Amino acid sequence: MYTYWDGPISKLQTNMDDISKRYNKDVIVVEAAYGYGLENCDDTDNSFSAKEAQDGGYPGTVQGQADFIRDLMQSIINVPDNRGKGVFYWEPTWIAVPGAGWATPAGMKYIGESGKDGNARENQALFDCRGKVLPSLKSFN
């Protein structure tokens, strides 16, 4: 669930409610994230920028990230009949570390990709660029 690509959490809520009722199934949000800032910690462009912060419905701040997580968790709790079971946050610990990009050099060569091997998602992690835990992590309590 990326509000800057998928629309508001209310749209997800409607979909989860429908799926759980129509198919009599539990639901889990299997991928979600939001940016805590616009800082870029490496030389790879981030997938969360000022445009995504504007489109996403939350500011691109630690508090905006925390509010997103809180609202997402509440939408899962609100699925009728206790059918909302959880969320997998993507990727909470993927901070910019040299050599720990999206692919290995061998993998990039194999798929014919060249260029930067950094991380386009470090500003959506739950740790800052130096590895310090962000207060937004507490939103999962």
TrEMBL record:
Pfam families referenced in this protein's UniProt entry, alphabetically: Glyco_hydro_53
Catalytic activity: The enzyme specifically hydrolyzes (1->4)-beta-D-galactosidic linkages in type I arabinogalactans
Annotated GO MF terms: arabinogalactan endo-1,4-beta-galactosidase activity; glucosidase activity
Keyword field contains Transcription regulation: no
Keywords: Glycosidase, Hydrolase
BP GO annotations: pectin catabolic process
UniProt record similarity statement: Belongs to the glycosyl hydrolase 53 family.
Protein name according to UniProt: Arabinogalactan endo-beta-1,4-galactanase
Native organism: Serratia plymuthica
